[in-house]
Design brief:
4-stranded mixed sheet, 3-stranded mixed sheet, alpha/beta, 418 residues, single chain
């Protein structure tokens, strides 16, 4: 959400787990259900650092509670879900909160030691069906890459060599990021009206389990961090900036803060939670972000406006075909997580699996293993591929731009789109 999972702002006040706390300029009154929802989220945060991804609601509701027994938290979540179902909230809001509370309950029950299969954990947390992608799909994508990257030696080595041709030092990457952000913001503003005064600042960081992250600070401001543990590649930056900023995570967070929390007083939108259904929608939006505003011209735009900054010669048509083949490999992380957590595979087997089917270097494969091994992120890999598939299919059933704007501004949950 911040979500990977990709850069600066006035110094944020950080709460437990790095939660950005921003005292709202206008104190929006919240009803009892919203307040209880926020309190229970912080009860889980007391056990799972990072569960609360961002909070910009009334400061008095953010507290450092003594860790309550997870079983009691789970029971309270069940009680609150019953209150929500009996409320006079609009049907979509009731459905959204019910799905969110179910995801929170799954986390609390797992903390309490209740037996929960990995697949059931994914279902409950994200309101989706976890799917294991047949390896034949990865092999088909790799066969396409064989045609696009001919030459001697293993395909993985040829792909790695091709990628190295796009590597740029941090100073050059920063210039590219600023160029992309300006253009992406312009295009996003043509799609949906952005809140007044919104802004994104970027920072390059290291030693993180993710490739990039949006820290939403409230009041329409974001800090986006890009991890430099792995080389920065110019051909990946357009998707990354759109994913984290415009019209991805920052745009969604800023618009929902303005329209749902500030204007309607829906307090659940003043807090963002990891491992809940909202993450599937957020990552689905973000993985489609570049496509929504650049479409088929993305690679041509990058070759014209970005690559000269790094002395890189682009081949837009070939890059587009390679990117399309590689998209099928995005399901690999979910498979790897399933092997690790559901099928008892040894971590070294998982590294080998990622290297074989994902055509990754050992360093890249171990970075992926680090992510899916981190307790907070053990189920999160499903949000990207499933989120994009779910939203892309839903967009195709109507006016694509209008529906995307709806996703950015209204409460939506996965089973609502299926």
């Amino acid at each position: 959400m911040g979500r990977i999972d990709r850069i600066l702002e006035t110094e944020p006040c950080l709460g437990p787990g790095g939660v950005a706390l921003v005292a709202p300029s206008n104190h929006t009154p919240l009803d009892a259900i919203s307040q209880r929802y926020i309190e229970l989220a912080f009860d889980i945060e007391a056990h799972v650092e990072g569960f609360v991804d961002a909070y910009f609601g009334p400061p008095e509701l953010h507290r450092r509670p003594e860790a309550r027994p997870p079983a009691q938290i789970a029971a309270d979540l069940v009680d609150l879900a019953a209150v929500v179902r009996a409320s006079d909230y609009p049907a979509t809001r009731r459905g959204y909160l019910t799905a969110q509370l179910r995801g929170m309950e799954a986390t609390a029950r797992r903390l309490a030691g209740e037996p929960l299969s990995y697949a059931d954990e994914v279902r409950a947390c994200f309101d989706i069906e976890p799917v294991y992608t047949p390896e034949a799909r990865f092999e088909e994508a790799n066969a396409t890459l064989e045609e696009l990257l001919p030459g001697p030696g293993p395909l993985a080595e040829r792909l790695a060599a091709w990628r190295r041709g796009f590597e740029v030092p941090p100073a050059v990457a920063r210039r590219m990021i600023d160029t992309i952000a300006a253009e992406a913001r312009r295009r996003t503003a043509a799609l949906v009206a952005l809140p007044e005064g919104e802004e994104v600042r970027f920072e390059l960081v290291s030693d993180k389990p993710w490739s990039g992250y949006n820290w939403y600070l409230g009041e329409a401001r974001s800090l986006v961090e890009i991890n430099t543990d792995l080389p920065i590649k110019a051909n990946a930056l357009l998707d990354l900036v759109c994913h984290e900023a415009y019209p991805g995570h920052h745009t969604e967070h800023a618009l929902k803060e303005q329209r749902l929390y500030r204007e309607r007083g829906w307090g659940e939108q003043a807090i963002q939670l990891i491992n809940t259904p909202e993450c599937v929608i957020a990552e689905g939006i973000a993985t489609l972000a570049a496509d929504m505003i650049f479409g088929p011209e993305a690679h041509t735009w990058a070759a014209t406006h970005l690559y000269p900054l790094g002395g890189i010669a682009g081949d837009p048509e070939r890059e587009a075909r390679i990117a399309a083949a590689q998209w099928s490999l995005r399901a690999l992380s979910a498979n790897a997580a399933t092997l690790l957590h559901a099928r008892g595979a040894d971590p070294e087997e998982v590294v080998a699996y990622i290297m074989r089917y994902g055509l990754r270097t050992e360093r890249e494969a171990r970075q992926s293993l680090r992510f899916i091994s981190t307790p907070l992120w053990r189920t999160y890999a499903f949000t990207y591929f499933v989120g994009r598939q779910l939203i892309d299919a839903w967009l195709a059933r109507g006016d694509r731009n209008a529906r995307f704007a709806q996703l950015l501004t209204e409460q939506v949950y996965p089973s609502m789109l299926g």
